[in-house]
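pls ignore typos typing on phone
coenzyme A + seq
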Amino acid sequence: MSEQSWQIRPESTEDAPLVAALNEASFGPGRYAKSAYRLRDGVDPVAGLSFVAVENGELLGSIRFWPVAIGMEKSLLLGPLAVQCDQRGRGIGIALMKSGIEAARAQGHAGIVLVGDEPYYVRVGFARIAPGRIHFPGPVDPERILGLSLRQNVMLTLKGEVRRSRIDHPVCADGAAVG
Ligand SMILES: CC(C)(COP(=O)(O)OP(=O)(O)OC[C@H]1O[C@@H](n2cnc3c(N)ncnc32)[C@H](O)[C@@H]1OP(=O)(O)O)[C@@H](O)C(=O)NCCC(=O)NCCS
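k done
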C-alpha cells in the first residue's frame, strides 16, 4: 500500500477561490437550486469547521458546515463535501468528514444533519432520520436525510423545519446583496 502523502488542514482565506472552483466542478451551477443551498444563502459557514485536503500545494478536497435551526434546536448542516474527481477513492472524503466531525464535537455542537447517500455517510456514523421528522425547504428525498449525534449515548431528537439559524449577509430575492 502506498504511503499517504496528502494532509488535512483548516481552510484558509486564500483557499476560498479554489474551494469555489472545486464545488463548481463537483456540483455544477444546478447546486444553487438545491434545498441545502437555500439554507446557505447569505450565511457564512461555521468558523473552525472548514477543512481542506492538500498535497504538494494542490487543493484536493474540501468540507464546510453551515449553521441551521431545526424546530427549536440548533444543528449543523454538513456540506458541501467534494474531492477532485481524479483523486477520489483515496480516503480523502472520509478523512475530511472525520476532521470536521471531531472539530464540531470539540466546539460542543449537538448534532449534524445532511442530505446524501446513506451507504457512504454510514461509514462515519450517520444514520437515516425517520421520514417526516424534519423538513427541508423544497423537495428532498426523505431517504437521504441523515443525522449524527455528537454526544455520547444521546440520540438525535430533531423535529421540525430546517431553517437558517442566522443571516450574515441579507440578500434580495434576486440574489443581490442588500446595501
Ligand atoms: C462523495 C465524495 C466526496 C467521496 O470522496 P472520496 O474521497 O472519493 O471518498 P473516500 O475515498 O473517502 O471513500 C471512497 C469510498 O466510498 C465509496 N463511495 C463514494 N461515494 C459514495 C456514494 N455516493 N455512495 C456510496 N459509497 C460511496 C466509494 O465507492 C469508496 O468505497 P471503497 O472504500 O469501498 O472503495 C466524492 O466522490 C465527490 O466529491 N463527489 C462529488 C460531490 C458529492 O457528491 N459530494 C457529496 C454530496 S452529498
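The pocket of coenzyme A is lined by residues 26, 79, 81-83, 88-94, 116-117, 119-120 (CB under 6 Å). The mean pLDDT is 92. more later
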